[in-house]
């Protein structure tokens, strides 16, 4: 069962997938899903910054997997790809995952030694993401 | 490789003694000779730099030994160069004649550790040690004085030899210090001295399991070094010495270390209870020349409340981790218990009684269990610290306690903060990060909880944000209530801006509250003593469009958000004050009382209104959620 979490700011900042092979496929998926994200954003059209709208929901389902999106106020997009076979995941769980991701992401941002735009190399962030993925999937 | 006598520089043969042979061959191997015997230029240059000779001397050496002519360093040239450098270090001119005689070994700061490890030979290390000392001071009287000292820990020297071979396979920890030889931490470079510290430190580097004997003779070994003037070196020694004392727990911050950290903190931020901003801390810690990744990790470990700034305990933790890292300790994955802010608090608070007993010196000696000779040496060694320490053995406890007191509320605060994760700290520090940081999860309340500086800025942003319905109805909503732009909302209770009571009546949307307004104004008008209720926010003209309802009332309801509501000062406070100045004093008392009563009534009313509105907000929110979920359900079906 394959899952992946990616953080993209129009270029990948962070990619983690379990299992670690087949990352290329996830790259591809994420890139294509970015289009859907754009579509959703432009479709909404409001200038609100409500958290509710940061969660973009199921971007699109394919037969293999489902893609969920989340965009922060600074246009950093989080994308989670899960196997379609994993039907036990509910929307709320995905939301909470995004929330946790966002929290950890802002922690990384707070670090003055982190230059925005660098790939994220923080070990703490890695560990959080790993535990989240293991526990959820 | 033709060792021994075939150092053919300029045709003259130079004989090498045994020790020299060993030394040179080691250095030769160090410089990565390639197949034809030529040495890597980079390594040679490094070695030459490490010899601490001035550039012209090095040039001369290169020329004389023949490498310049040849264009590379072959074996012969290299040996010749080494000999010439030894001569130069001994003060002789760089000439071929000077190397004909017997010379001490050349000293390469930072490189010699290799030799010591490869050749754990008592004579060699003794020699090199004494030469280290000798070369640094450059004066004859020094080494003899050092001899007795060296002889004293003779047995311990053996021990040192014993565990230096085990170190040779594990070269990597010692290597890391030598990698950052020049360490201008305090932005002061006294190259020789600082390097010396490292050079001496490196062979004695404690690998993680330590013997207690090693600290003692290791620290003794440091004795003969000349007093180092830079804060850096002295701190380093201080740190390693003291750290070494607690060899069973390298993560514990000792008193001297804490003092030093306090001094450093003060240099960055005079107020001990305040915070060091991220960028400031970044610049400061970057000076330590650790790789950014490690600094980043250290930051993550030490910034427990994740606010992008360091409190004093966090700063100590970060500093301590940096020091530990520079000493070769690997960084832990999680913060050790002794470095957590709460822990350190407790430890140091209990320390003052013991400090009161004796001076720090005594304490140190009791800790180390070393003779008073060391004490004397300590004082001479650290001229900077002793003046500080000796005058204030008594001040120290109070200082500690006082520094801790601001720490402890800060600590609690930090702990609280860490639980509630306040994020956006100040708008001044990290611009980009600020923007990102101010995103949800819980955007509005954070700024006002933590900060009073740029609150006007924050609140403006907030008002725009929360103008669209702050997502969480549970927020104490100074932002939620006010900023709805006047005529557009259901919640028409929002009062418009008033400069005076007349305007209130004119605003049609705020019919509900216009009465309140008037009432309030009349009540407030009378009371000069309502100063406490109307804080001096005369700059309230920033916010005009109905941003804050009655400020005095608000103050009572939301005491914690006081600091955040400066811009929410009602405009009428200006009017109020002017009016009040016109009142003659005799009426004050009565009017004050009336004002108080009226305020209380309005308070009550407003609180009720507030709760009702909260309810409404929640309801609307829920509706919205359901609608959105419905929409989502429908959407995939609609779009294929």
From TrEMBL, chain A:
Keywords: ER-Golgi transport, Transport
Subcellular localization, as worded in the UniProt entry: Cytoplasm, Perinuclear region
Domain of life: Eukaryota
Pfam families: Sedlin_N
GO BP, one annotated term: endoplasmic reticulum to Golgi vesicle-mediated transport
Any one GO cellular component localisation term in the record: perinuclear region of cytoplasm
InterPro entries: Longin-like_dom_sf, Sedlin, TRAPPC2L
Family: Belongs to the TRAPP small subunits family. Sedlin subfamily.
Protein name listed in UniProt: Trafficking protein particle complex subunit 2-like protein
Originating species: Cyprinus carpio
From TrEMBL, chain B:
UniProt superkingdom: Eukaryota
Organism annotation: Cyprinus carpio (Common carp)
GO molecular function, one term: calcium ion binding
Gene: LOC109048187
Compositional bias of kind Basic and acidic residues: 144-161, 374-398
Regions of compositional bias (Low complexity) in chain numbering: 560-578
CDD domains reported for this sequence: EH
Amino acid composition bias (Pro residues), ranges on this chain: 166-176, 475-486
Domain EH: 20-104, 257-341
Region of interest: Disordered: 133-181, 358-589
UniProt name for this protein: RalBP1-associated Eps domain-containing protein 2-like isoform X5
Ranges of biased composition (kind: Polar residues): 362-373, 453-469, 498-509
Residue span(s) of domain EF-hand: 290-325
GO BP term, pick one: endosomal transport
GO cellular component terms attached to this protein's record: cytoplasm; plasma membrane
